[in-house]
Write a structure and sequence with these properties.
alpha/beta; about 40% helix
Length: about 180
């Protein structure tokens, strides 16, 4: 219990003191990945290339399941999934949590509305330059919109979770308007 508390404390301190700077920018080619994921407590292999065949994908990185900011962000994405689906978009959350933790997080906090992927080796977050500087193995709170052509159309990094859903939804709408008008 003390170790878990100290881990949460470190994440909280990092959120206040550590800048997170995503290096991937709009127009950059998105790193493709496959990862063990959970949706509604059921494990599967998530494939970004396969998901992109159906439309844009919001790939969002978060530091740690069941912490206050990550729970808030998961709830916000869950509430907005109808709007993302109406635009033909999907969402995948990525953290360094293990799959057993994500099985629980996907049902309780993600409300079985979207999958979360395990990146215990930090391979995906490293490829997306979304590692919290100085606090490996935690991801920075960074959201990307990846379009079906495999490119980043939007990037947003902020440790405050409150704007990620609104901003990525606006980016998906803008992309859809530009490419389907």
């Amino acid at each position: 219990m003390l170790i878990r508390f100290l881990g949460y404390l470190l994440i909280s301190l990092a959120a206040v003191t550590t800048p997170a700077l995503a290096q991937l920018k709009p127009g950059d080619k998105a790193p493709m990945f496959k990862a063990q994921a959970s949706l509604g407590g059921k494990q599967f292999t998530f494939s970004l290339p396969e998901a992109l065949k159906k439309g844009p994908v919001v790939v969002y990185f978060y530091p740690k399941a069941f912490t206050s900011g990550c729970t808030e962000e998961a709830h916000d994405f869950a509430e907005a999934m109808g709007q993302f689906h109406a635009l033909g978009a999907s969402v995948i959350g990525v953290s360094n949590d293990d799959i057993a933790t994500l099985n629980k997080f996907s049902t309780s906090e993600c409300r079985s509305k979207f999958p979360v992927a395990a990146d215990s080796g930090q391979r995906i977050m490293t490829a997306y330059d979304s590692v919290m500087m100085g606090f490996m193995p935690y991801a920075s709170r960074t959201s990307y919109v990846v379009t079906p052509d495999g490119r980043i159309s939007y990037e947003y990094t902020a440790l405050d979770p409150s704007e990620h859903v609104k901003n990525t939804l606006a980016a998906v709408k803008a992309w859809k308007t530009k490419h389907h008008s």
